[in-house]
Each structure stands twice: as C-alpha cells, then as structure tokens.
Amino acid sequence: MTKRILIIDDDPAMVDFLEEFFQDNDYETAVAFNGHEGLEKAKAEKPDLVTLDMDMPKKGGTLFYAGLRRNPTLKDVPVIVISGVGPRPPSLTKDVPVLTKPVSNDLLLEQVRTLLG
C-alpha cells in the first residue's frame, strides 16, 4: 500500500519540489499552503506523514502541530519540519526531525523512510 505524505508549505516552488520528489520516490501526496488548510487536509486525507513549514500565513506550523496532536485520530502521525526558521521551536517534541531549507534530498528521504518504517 502506497504511503501518503501531506506537504504543508506556503512557498509554491517548495511545494512543487516536494510533491515531485515524493512522487518520484513512490509516495502519494496531498498539499496545503497554511496550517489551517493543513489541518483540514489532514482530517480528510489521513496522511501517513506530514512535512511542515513553520513560518506561514493564517495559521503557522506551531499552531498546526498543536492542533494535530490534540486530534485523537491524527495525534500519532509523524511530522518532519522543513523550514528556513532558526532553532527548533519549543512546541515540537524531540522526536520531530527539523530539516533546514534548502533541504538535502538524501537526508529527507532517509528521514521519511525511518519514520514510515
């Protein structure tokens, strides 16, 4: 069964890159451009993993992450932060990998495979 990755980022170029990258590596994708849209997509799509930008309009990554963890059906979905924002946001648990933009393809794929088993 193909795993689904929800990409949440407000940069269309980054979304296009990640979508193509994941699809080329045999993952299905869904896309959201802010945290609010991301929560709605997560509820509808039930992703196996989420990539999350932290600095976005409307509802940023921190609020998305908090909402995801409060949802009983989504609270265990693994998250990988891909962001240009500095140090690890304090709201993230230690098990959430934080990758800095521009992201290394090899490192990203390694993290995805590790989290999805």
Automatic annotation (TrEMBL):
Swiss-Prot/TrEMBL keywords: Phosphoprotein
Coiled coil (UniProt feature): none
Residues found modified as 4-aspartylphosphate: 53
Domain Response regulatory: 4-116
Any single biological process term in GO: phosphorelay signal transduction system
CDD domains assigned to the protein according to its UniProt record, in alphabetical order: REC
Pfam family, one: Response_reg
InterPro entries for this protein: Bact_response_regulator, CheY-like_superfamily, Sig_transdc_resp-reg_receiver
Lyase listed as a keyword: no
Keyword Lipoprotein included in the entry's annotation: no
Superkingdom assignment: Bacteria
Protein name (database record): Response regulator receiver protein
Organism: Maridesulfovibrio salexigens (strain ATCC 14822 / DSM 2638 / NCIMB 8403 / VKM B-1763) (Desulfovibrio salexigens)
Source species taxonomy: Bacteria, Pseudomonadati, Thermodesulfobacteriota, Desulfovibrionia, Desulfovibrionales
